[in-house]
Amino acid sequence: MKFSLSTADITPQKPVFLSGFGDRTHKSEGVLDPIYAKAVLIQANKTLLIITLDVVGSDRSFIVGIKNTLEEKFDLQHDEVLINFSHTHASVALTGTDEILREGTYSIKDGKAFNRLIIDFSEDEAYYDFIRDTLVNMIEDCYINLENGNLLLGSGSSNLAVSRRKLTEKGVEWKPNPDAEIDKDLFVLKLVDQTNNIKCILYNYGCHPNTMSSDNYLISNDFIGKTSYVLEETYLGVTAIFLQGCGGELKPLISADGDVFKSCSIAEMEEVGIDLANDIISVLEQKSFIPVQCNFQTILVDTLLYTEQTGIEFYEDMVNNPKVSDFRKRGAHRTIKLFKEGLIKDHAPFYISIWHLDDKTRLIAMEGEISTEYSLMLKRMFPGGRTIVLGYTNGSYYYVPTRKMISEGGYDVDCNYCCGCFRGSFVPEIEDIIVGQIAKADLVLRMQANNE
Length: 452
Known about the structure:
Structural class: alpha/beta
């Protein structure tokens, strides 16, 4: 097996509207810590590429544009590339130059605008060009600097996160719920050279990097930036890469303040990052690591998730309801406008990527803000402790709840009109679609391996 690494600073060089919170009122006011693009290229029977970006997420316009470029330049197929987002709420969201594949109502110049048809995306497209060219240079370096080594897998756990879905007599409320079952798995993949020196630490955990709230106007990768910094200071010469898991409804536990969530200080944010780094160091120093045999099989599924056929009247009533928050009213106004313009959607595209790293180690990566319940579900479906589940991969523009969550309600279920251009909440059957597609794709990969 051969591997190589590359890192580049992609911090915007002028003030931009930060994404992740709907109530920010102006552009960024400086940089707390740089944001990065990182890449790891792994070669065995085939070549795989993982790219991580310290941003909120992206739409299909960005993903397809980048993957098409990598295919043209390096013959890397779409199923051989994973683009994973840290989902920090102190950064930007990304789009590409393809207007047909563009989603959302946000731009780094205008922030969240009422009319998506008049948003100026020129700065977003310039930033896309910069990231695309940066990634091409990074991958060129990766191919030049390939070295022999090994990939190993270790695991532990972390108590960093807490659910923000609390079921009460009033329904699901946005409150800390320490009793909720969440995925606490902390996976650590390490790449070592021929003399067993660690060159790269890839760590996977699921949690929103939004320790700081909407009152923060400094660009940052939140606690993830601090975690990677501590790891790289502890293990000199190592590149630390975060792989965001299924943290759709998970927040840092430190932000829980009784029955509400607070906006944490910079010091509190850094404390979370240090704690996670220490959890990772404990895995590295105290846990056994299993060699990955590096016989790669990959598949990319592009399916559809469907919404309820909610009518325009629902949103008109919402606009006229004095009990509805201004944030939700803005979403309702936008949805009404999309109805009238004929741009409302009743389905969403959904990428599922599965990599078999060997016959026992798999990586399942899904588009969107995936609930921790999916991670728990898939790890029970594939027992053995060697299934890594990622969200926020190959796109991130909506929440993906489970059937149980949909029956309960709550923000993660009914926010489609707030964050996108969908006419209603997802139908409960999306869980069957997702799990069924994963089961089918995993079987295909196992059959391919058996036939080789």
